[in-house]
Design brief:
- By secondary structure, the protein is mainly β.
- The protein is built from one helix and four strands; from the N terminus they run E-E-E-E-H.
- The protein has a domain of 32 residues.
- The longest helix is centred in the C-terminal third of the chain and has 4 residues.
- The chain is globular.
Length: 53
């Protein structure tokens, strides 16, 4: 049996791979940051280098 420990952030524009332990869980999805989890309300990005979501 294989256990998934990481997955892509649920934000479509985001390129980040997030650890399920450290992810922000919202509505059954996993996000890399509060900005992604909240849908970028003020246009802020996730803050991770190399990602322009």
């Amino acid at each position: 049996m294989t256990t998934v420990t990481q997955m892509k952030c649920a934000c479509e524009a985001c390129l980040c791979i997030v650890s399920l332990e450290q992810a922000i869980h919202k509505d059954g999805k996993h996000y890399c940051s509060e900005a992604c989890a909240n849908g970028h309300p003020n246009g802020e990005n996730c803050g991770h280098s190399g990602c322009e979501c």
